[in-house]
Amino acid sequence: MTSHQIRQAFLDFFRSKEHLIVPSAPLVAKNDPTLMFNNSGMAQFKDFFLGNGTPPSRRIADTQKCLRVSGKHNDLEDVGFDTYHHTMFEMLGNWSFGDYFKKEAIAWAWELLTEVYKLPKDRLYVSVFEGDSKDGVPFDQEAWDLWKGIVGEDRIILGNKKDNFWEMGDTGPCGPCSEIHVDLRTPAEVAEVSGKSLVNNDHPQVVEIWNLVFMQFERKADGSLIPLPSTHVDTGMGFERLCMAIQQKTSNYDTDVFQNTIQVLETLSGKKYGQNDEPFADIAMRVISDHIRAVSFAITDGQLPSNVKAGYVIRRILRRAVRYGYSYLGFQEPFFHKLVPVLAEQFKDVFTELKDQEEFVTRVILEEEKSFLRTLESGLKRLDVVMSGLKENGINTIPGDEVFELSDTFGFPVDLTALIAREKSFQIDETGFQDALAEQKKRSRQDAAKEATDWIELREYDGVEFLGYDFEETHSHIVKYRKVKTKTGEEYHIVLDRTPFYAEMGGQVGDTGELVLGTKEEGGRRIAIVDTKKENDLFVHISRDKDLDSALQEAGIITAKIDIDRRNKIKSNHTATHLMLSSMREVLGTHVSQKGSFLNDEVLRFDFAHFSKVTDEELKKIEDRVNEKIRENIALDERRNVPIQQALDAGATATFGEKYGDFVRLIIFDPKFSFELCGGTHVPSTGEIGVFKFISEGSVSAGVRRVEAVTGEKALELMRQQEETLNKIKDLLKGPTDLVKAVESLIEERSSLQKKIAALENEKIQALKTALVENMETHSTFNLIVQKVDVPSADSLKQLSYELRDQIENLIAVFGTEISGKPQLSVFIAENIVAETGLNAGKIVKDLAKEIRGGGGGQPFFATAGGSDASGLDTALEKAKTLF
Ligand code: ATP
Ligand code: MG
User: Fold this and answer.
1) 73 CA to middle of ligand 2, Å?
2) Which protein residue has the closest C-alpha to ligand 1 atom 9?
3) According to the model, what pLDDT value does residue 127 have?
4) Strand runs labelled E in 312-365
5) C-alpha–C-alpha distance, residues 329 and 349, integer Å
6) Any alpha helices (H) in 55-207, and if so which ranges?
7) Is 603 helix (H, G, I), strand (E, B) or coil?
């Protein structure tokens, strides 16, 4: 079976068991403060398990793009070194939300593996949770009995809490699990050592392929477990490992999932995978063919490489790949981006988004590669300097903080530093490096530290109703709250059953406003809401007011009220963003797609794919077009709950990497002009925006530009400020009729004055020179001038010394001067004297500088020093006279 067929067979099998097949969520996690990237199939369904939403079906199956490179699951360091852990992999999964439980999950898993995929039964092992007395959870008898009806007892293994008890996080749903392992060794190997003894022992051919999780408990913040009201199934099977088992290979990389990429790498490098003397060459090929998937799909789903957070994780993966190619496959030039087309082709029917953005992804990776190769070069140079410095002092260990600095500031990977060090008979101070790293981690942990209590549930509710599209004020109830300690203080997180507050999403900031206890008419205590954020599907209202517990607990009906002024400005900026995107696509081309967006009540910021600077001319055209549409006063046409396919077929613009539900909301301002999938808030008609004005345009990263603009009042304010500035300038220039001409003539005048000053200064120096030559002391082997002089700048000392050198042989000249109260010294020694006597201007000036409380240096024939005590100048010069 090919990998395509294997994936399809999985989905078909569960469809036949009445599962709804859904698309993978984007790799990049949104609205989940605990996750940067989706790292398991269940991540996109969290809300259903937490009871914050209702699934579209009680049985679901899919293949999910997962990335395990940060947080709880981080396999990065193993990738390439072993043959079955990836950064990005596909997790095939089937779910029951309060529907079937252990019996069906176990029977179907077995049926699929042995009857559809025809994996040999005598090569499969299963595990069952042995129980944990500390948690008071018993042995999973039910799973044991079910498995015993299918396989021999000798194939069932008891597993401990670490391997066989799954938890969503520190708190939340959890339960025992059953894993299925497969033994892929040769018959001879099997005869020698039983597979059972190798399960969960890191053997590369005895690996876990499927994990069936049975959620039946909830973990509270105090560590206790309570039974869940309804039980769920969550399974995850590693697709690439499954392919290895079915295709009878001993490494994931030998399957058709990776072979295409590896073949291209062989052609590019001239090396054959599996036939290299240098063991790291094979590792490099695995690393690269793995990492290109993670990097390409992350960029496709909207996570560009950058210097912070998730972007930095992606940049590090990219650099790890490039680095392996550079060190072990001889790639000195960018190569990594050349693998994108291979992947785009391979996944064009599964994850079509990569094919759609093939060119963009390729260019982003190419630019990253180029800049990293430059970093590598400058890092190598720095390392050279460091090592030669150490060598001079007879040291052959590179200090830990230096290694850390190279990795942290220069992006220079530690293992590369170690490798190069080894080549030059150096070693690195590994412990020192680890200390520096731990220190930094500690700092960033402290920065991020947040401590939350359990949610305090106040009343039953059935999902949150968002009413903010239609109302600015609603009657609601508080359904739960919690307290969160952050670095800046304590916050209350409050959830309402219905709310007009928009929670930060799709670039639009969250609403602010207030909760008033009691009805609109009664009024009561007011609670200020400073922000509203989404946590999965929950709308979390954030308040920094103090001591709210009893008020929240006792509140009955409340009035939730947003700051409507602020919201109106936000709306203008959001609609303007839509009008702007359509105008950009008209003026710049349809390749312009959204790569990031942020808007609040003051400004709108928009990142988009485009490969050159947007010229002033183009900006003007876009601006004109947007303002034209504002004046047309187009009415908003908002459609809710449109089936997604219908919307896309009608030509609606969607953003890559956004996760859309089955039903979407459409925001239309003239169907022929602006037609977008959007959950944000918008003005009822474009005229309300007033006016639109760009304030900046620039580059964010390779292939991505950023513009900022303002609307309405803010735009007016900006224009007014500019007008005021102009008026001030006019006043300063005494109200000329032609302002530009007046400024031009000022500039001209200035430059001619500068020329005149330079000429005068030069005359002064020439006169000074004559006086100095007259006062020169003549000795047999040298001519000495030591003098305090009056010159316009420190540079003049150099000019003076150099001009005298051209005039006088065997010159030694020491000058002192004061520039704006600061003492300066210079020492010049003719080069032939330096060569003959070994005198050194640099050393002399340092010594003299002590008198003026300063320091300096330079070359053996000319050096300068600055200081802070001008009263010492004379002493310094007297001292100089005694030196020669
Ligand atoms: P392992 O112990 O092998 O790392 P795990 O316990 O981390 O696996 P789960 O979190 O249970 O794995 O994930 C479910 C399945 O996903 C596993 O059975 C395995 O087939 C697959 N899987 C997990 N991590 C990876 C990875 N880094 N690369 C490829 N497949 C993986
Ligand atoms: Mg793991």
Assistant:
1) 6
2) 211
3) 97
4) none
5) 31
6) 102-111, 141-148, 161-164, 187-192
7) coil
Q: Report how far ligand 2's centroid is from the alpha carbon of 69 (Å).
A: 11
> Separation of 35 CA from ligand 2 center, angstroms?
16
Question: pLDDT digits over 295-337, tens only?
Answer: 999 999 999 998 788 998 999 899 999 989 998 999 999 999 9
Q: Is the pLDDT of residue 460 over 90?
A: no
pTM here is 0.73
Token pair of 703, please?
């292939």
Q: What is the pLDDT of residues 873-882, one digit of tens each?
A: 999 999 999 9
**Among the bound ligands, the one closest to the CA of 39:** 1
Closest ligand (CA of 40)? 1
H-helix or E-strand spanning residue 643: strand 637-643
φ and ψ of 107, to 5 deg: -65, -45
Any ligand 1 atom below 6 A from CB of 89: yes
Q: Read off φ and ψ for residue 431, nearest 5 degrees.
A: -65, -45
| Per-residue confidence band for 832, with pLDDT thresholds at 50, 70 and 90 | very high
Residue identifier of the C-alpha nearest atom 13 of ligand 1 = 236
pLDDT tens digits along 374-407: 878 778 888 888 898 888 888 899 999 889 888 8
**β-strand pairing of 20-21 with 538-543:** unpaired
For every residue of 830-841, DSSP letters joined together read -HHHHHHH---H
Residues 6 or more apart whose Cβ sits within 8 Å of residue 293? 86, 87, 88, 343
Q: DSSP labels for 417-444? A: HHHHHHHTT-EE-HHHHHHHHHHHHHHH
Mutate to test the pocket of ligand 1, among 6, 42, 77, 91 (most ligand atoms within 8 A of CB): 91
> What CA–CA distance (Å, rounded) separates 61 from 881?
91
CA of 419 to the centre of ligand 2 (A): 28
- Ligand 1 pocket test: pick from 62, 174, 241, 287 the residue with the most ligand atoms within 8 Å of its Cβ: 241
Phi, psi dihedrals of residue 857, rounded to the nearest 5° = 170, -175
Give the helix/strand (H/E) hosting 663: strand 663-669
- 446: pLDDT strictly greater than 70: no
